[in-house]
């Protein structure tokens, strides 16, 4: 493809991030009207990708990209076929409307600029996710959607519920992201393909690979958490703590569909196996049922919609898992329909909340005359959700029923689940769209009137698109549904469904669904109470489980910290020296490198005398019962060391040692006499014996190691170098001094610096006193 | 001869580690002072021992004549002695000030940084 087009696509991928960067500044200048400017970014994306419709409908996938980390074979590359293009259009199209909607919804909010920034960043991440070709860009964008979602859910961070919901979403989808990463790496290793386009053209390679099941489970771990499949569904309703534009965008139309996108994307290579066709319908079907049943229980408009979103995602997963061509067509149609009507309904719910001051369906009614445009948008969207003609939802529902059959066993069960689920969804759709508007007017917290154009533009546009797209179903199928279904199925497909009802089993099932739905709708209050009673009886759910897990984690961390870092230095020292003993002895014993038995040393009597003095000094320090003995015996061992240096040819060391030991004794005497510190040890003998054991193991270990070192041949290269060049180069006869001041002069400078800094630190320690400290000193002395 | 020194070095280590394992801060400090000597003598012994001939080039010659003590470990130890003395002095003053502020020389009772019985951190979000 042409370079120019490639550059524009790259620009389109980064444009939302650029817009996010300028959003706060722009909002400071233009206030909420910044929305009109910022919406141009997603609009540009929409127009750009719209231009690909013709190519993609003709079956030509668009690819492009740049090298990113060439050494690892990772590229920043994209891949645009029917599936990714439809997603890209939904994301940028709905994104445009959402930015405008957010302009009206958060008008006057202090942090509106920040909000625009977050939501545009999310848009960029989501766009990148569906267009990614290489696994690595897919994963990076996948995680980026989790992070931006965290920021958006926690936008209202002063409320604990928001913080909890944000953390919950991050933990659940973040764990899923790790699972996905592992899954992608397994696929990469098993097939040698690091890109989606490469993988899709690899045929049966993945299904035949020995790690197929592992890859499948890991990928499903990512997809199910992101798309809120039971039992990971609980984070999605909690995410409703976010401002409504977020709920409408992330948690109905786009992000939660990322999991479904992934499943659809991998269907040609992972699907068509027994595992795929068992796991997906079971989880999807369960999610569908659980979602709709829990939705009945709710009275908050947003929560009702949230649970139907869970249910819809379940339906999509179930259809993807059934795997037949017609099921995939149904999934594709339903996905598009759902994005349109659910986005619209969420925005309607936000609009009602914004204008009437409450979202509780029990306190709303008769708003139709006060908010006619909102009512129109709600009605159109609800009819689509209910699957009535002439709306896109109808096409989807017909296709769903055509995909199911009664041929016994599992299939019949899935059909029953689908009918009940769809009926309940119709109930919720009507409850959200009709209840607040029909009936007698109810006093609402705010005096309700029609919202500004920024607020109703989005829902109305989506609702009308849902209708128009269905009426001109031929065009829609040609440019959107068929290329998308073909990408999911991995083979060309043709879709014929239109809004004209035709007599078939599917139509009959539709009628049953609608009748059932209306029946339940009429006794919604009773159904709600019944559900509430059932849930109260169960009393536990994954949501509470999450709290318990987090608390358990904190308790565990606290307990582990209490054991490992208990604040007792004695224990730290014991652990340290035990480990040192192990580190010395284990390698020597394991490799059989113990030293040979030494011969008895031949030494002069005065050498023995110095040794004896050192040993006596040491013993006296350990046994000293009063401070004077301890100080003097410390001095004795120090001077003995100095004598040893003197005897073995190191006069410089001896002088230094004499000086240092004298100073040590003097300082120690000053400190100890002032503090009345006693060196004796008042511990039980058993404790002392343990310490003697540890000290013995370490000390003897050091000695044995040193003995071994002295028994191996000595490499004198370095010493010879200094001996040879000391005079020749540095003009000094005392080699030790030459090394110190010349060869290693910089080191000596460092050493002097250390001594100086120590001196300053000591000065500071003595000079700085806490106000309270004088009392303690006086009390003690 | 190395054998005898090795045994003495072992004794230095045993005593210093035994002292460091104590709970009394002053004993720990005594242990640290001895530990410095132990390490210095380890380096000294590992560089092999030579009696009474310091590594000094005689007048009129440009290199060492005959066998002398190894100069390299001596240079290392010279630095180490001074550093370990600074370390010891600093710790001593630190212990002195800690005793003044906290009124104890028992390390188990010095718990300002890691207080006992802090309880659980907040369990909310």
TrEMBL record, chain A:
Domain NADH-Ubiquinone oxidoreductase (complex I) chain 5 N-terminal intervals: 69-116
GO terms for CC?
A: plasma membrane
Q: Which residues cross the membrane?
A: 6-27, 34-53, 78-103, 115-132, 138-155, 167-191, 211-236, 248-266, 278-296, 303-324, 330-352, 373-392, 412-434, 454-475, 495-524, 571-591, 603-623, 630-648, 654-677, 689-707, 752-770
Per the record, the domain of life is: Bacteria
- Provide the NADH:quinone oxidoreductase/Mrp antiporter transmembrane domain boundaries: 132-416
Limits of the MrpA C-terminal/MbhE domain: 688-774
Keyword annotations for this protein, in alphabetical order, are: Antiport, Cell membrane, Ion transport, Membrane, Transmembrane, Transmembrane helix, Transport
**Residue ranges of domain MrpA C-terminal/MbhD in the record:** 613-676
According to Swiss-Prot or TrEMBL, what is its membrane topology? Multi-pass membrane protein
Question: GO molecular function terms here?
Answer: antiporter activity
GO BP:
monoatomic ion transport
- Entry annotated with the keyword Protein biosynthesis: no
Q: Where in the cell is it found?
A: Cell membrane; Membrane
Q: What is this protein called?
A: Putative monovalent cation/H+ antiporter subunit A
Q: Which organism is it from?
A: Aquibium carbonis
UniProtKB/TrEMBL annotation, chain B:
Q: Where in the cell is it found?
A: Cell membrane
Q: Which domain of life is it from?
A: Bacteria
GO cellular component terms, A-Z: plasma membrane
Keywords assigned by UniProt? Cell membrane, Membrane, Transmembrane, Transmembrane helix
Short name of one Pfam family for this protein? Oxidored_q2
Task: Extract the InterPro entries matched here.
Answer: CPA3_antiporter_subunitC, NUOK/Mnh_C1-like
Q: Please tell me whether the keyword Transmembrane is annotated for this protein.
A: yes
Membrane topology type, per the record? Multi-pass membrane protein
Q: Where are the transmembrane segments?
A: 6-21, 28-50, 75-96
Give the family, as the similarity comment puts it. Answer: Belongs to the CPA3 antiporters (TC 2.A.63) subunit C family.
For this entry, the protein name equals Na+/H+ antiporter subunit C
Which organism is this entry from? Answer: Aquibium carbonis
């Amino acid at each position: 493809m042409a370079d120019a087009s490639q550059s524009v696509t790259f620009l389109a991928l980064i444009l939302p991030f650029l817009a996010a960067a300028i959003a706060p500044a722009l909002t400071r200048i233009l206030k909420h009207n910044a929305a009109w400017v910022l919406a141009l970014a997603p609009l540009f994306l929409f127009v750009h990708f719209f231009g690909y419709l013709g190519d993609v409908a003709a079956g030509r996938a668009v690819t492009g990209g740049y090298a990113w980390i060439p050494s690892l074979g990772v590229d920043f590359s994209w891949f645009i076929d029917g599936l990714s293009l439809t997603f890209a259009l939904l994301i940028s199209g709905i994104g445009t409307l959402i930015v405008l909607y957010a302009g009206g919804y958060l008008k006057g909010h202090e942090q509106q600029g920040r909000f625009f920034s977050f939501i545009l960043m999310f848009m960029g991440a989501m766009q990148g996710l569906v267009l990614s070709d290489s696994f690595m860009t897919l994963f990076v964008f996948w995680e980026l959607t989790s992070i931006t979602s965290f920021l958006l859910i926690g936008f209202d961070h002063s409320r604990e519920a928001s913080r909890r919901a944000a953390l919950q979403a991050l933990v659940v989808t973040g764990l899923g992201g790790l699972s996905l990463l592992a899954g992608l790496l397994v696929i990469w290793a098993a097939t040698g393909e690091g890109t989606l386009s490469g993988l899709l053209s690899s045929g049966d390679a993945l299904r035949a690979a020995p790690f197929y099941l592992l890859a499948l489970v890991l990928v499903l771990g990512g997809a199910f958490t992101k798309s809120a499949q039971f039992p990971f569904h609980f984070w999605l309703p909690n995410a409703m703590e976010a401002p409504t534009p977020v709920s409408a965008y992330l948690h109905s139309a786009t992000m939660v569909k990322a999991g479904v996108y992934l499943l659809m994307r991998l269907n040609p290579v992972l699907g068509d196996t027994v595992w795929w066709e068992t796991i997906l319908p079971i989880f999807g079907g369960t999610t569908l049922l659980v979602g709709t049943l829990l939705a009945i229980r709710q009275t908050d408009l947003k929560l009702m919609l949230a649970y139907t979103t869970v249910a819809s995602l379940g339906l999509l997963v179930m259809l993807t898992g059934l795997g037949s061509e017609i099921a995939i067509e149904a999934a594709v149609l339903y996905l598009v329909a759902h994005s349109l009507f659910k986005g619209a309904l969420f925005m309607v719910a936000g609009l009602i909340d914004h204008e009437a001051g409450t979202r509780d369906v029990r306190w709303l009614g008769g708003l139709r005359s006060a908010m006619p445009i909102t009512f129109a948008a709600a009605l159109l969207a609800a009819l689509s959700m209910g699957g009535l003609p002439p709306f896109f939802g109808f096409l989807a529902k017909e296709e769903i029923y055509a995909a199911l059959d009664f041929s016994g066993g599992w299939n019949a069960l899935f059909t029953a689940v689908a009918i009940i689920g769809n009926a309940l969804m119709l109930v919720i759709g009507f409850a959200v769209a009709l209840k607040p508007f029909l009936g007698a007017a109810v006093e609402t917290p705010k005096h309700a009137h029609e919202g500004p154009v920024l607020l109703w533009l989005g829902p109305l546009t989506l609702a009308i698109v849902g209708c128009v797209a269905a009426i001109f179903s031929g065009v829609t199928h040609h440019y959107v549904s068929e290329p998308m279904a073909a990408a999911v199925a991995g083979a060309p497909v043709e879709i014929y469904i239109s809004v004209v009802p035709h007599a078939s089993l599917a139509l009959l099932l539709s009628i049953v669904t609608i009748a059932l739905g209306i029946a339940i709708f009429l006794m919604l209050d009773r159904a709600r109470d019944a559900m509430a009673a059932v849930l109260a009886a169960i009393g536990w759910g994954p949501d509470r489980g999450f709290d318990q897990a987090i608390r358990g984690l904190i308790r565990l961390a606290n307990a582990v910290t209490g054991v490992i870092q208990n604040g007792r230095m004695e224990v730290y020292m014991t652990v340290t020296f035990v480990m040192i003993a192990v580190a010395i002895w284990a390698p020597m014993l394991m490799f059989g490198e113990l030293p040979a038995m030494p011969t008895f040393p031949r030494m002069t009597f005065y050498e023995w005398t110095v040794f004896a003095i050192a040993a006596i000094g040491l013993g006296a320090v350990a046994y000293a019962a009063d401070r004077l003995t301890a100080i003097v015996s410390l001095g004795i061992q120090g001077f003995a060391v100095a004598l040893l240096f003197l005897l073995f040819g190191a006069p410089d060391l001896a002088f230094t040692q004499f000086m240092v030991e004298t100073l040590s004794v003097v300082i120690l005497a000053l400190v100890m006499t002032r503090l009345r510190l006693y060196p004796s040890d008042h511990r039980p003998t058993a404790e002392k014996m343990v310490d003697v054991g540890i000290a013995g193991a370490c000390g003897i270990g050091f000695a044995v190691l040193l003995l071994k070192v002295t028994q191996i041949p000595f490499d004198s290269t370095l010493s010879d170098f200094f001996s040879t060049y000391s005079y020749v180069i540095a003009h000094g006869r005392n080699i030790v001094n030459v090394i110190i001041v010349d060869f290693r002069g910089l080191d000596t400078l460092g050493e002097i610096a250390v001594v100086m800094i120590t001196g300053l630190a000591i000065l500071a320690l003595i000079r700085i006193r806490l106000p309270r400290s004088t009392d303690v000193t006086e009390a003690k002395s | 001869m190395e054998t005898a020194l090795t045994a003495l070095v072992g004794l230095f280590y045993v005593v210093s580690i035994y002292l460091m394992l104590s709970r009394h801060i002053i004993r720990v400090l005594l242990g640290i002072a001895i530990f410095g000597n132990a390490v210095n003598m380890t380096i000294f012994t590992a560089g092999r021992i030579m009696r009474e001939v310091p590594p000094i080039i005689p007048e009129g010659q440009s290199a060492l004549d005959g066998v002398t003590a190894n100069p390299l470990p001596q240079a290392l130890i010279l630095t180490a002695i001074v550093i370990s003395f600074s370390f010891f002095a600093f710790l001593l003053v630190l212990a002195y000030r800690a005793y003044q502020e906290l009124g104890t020389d028992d390390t188990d009772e010095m718990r300002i940084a890691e207080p006992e019985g802090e309880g659980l951190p907040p369990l909310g979000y």
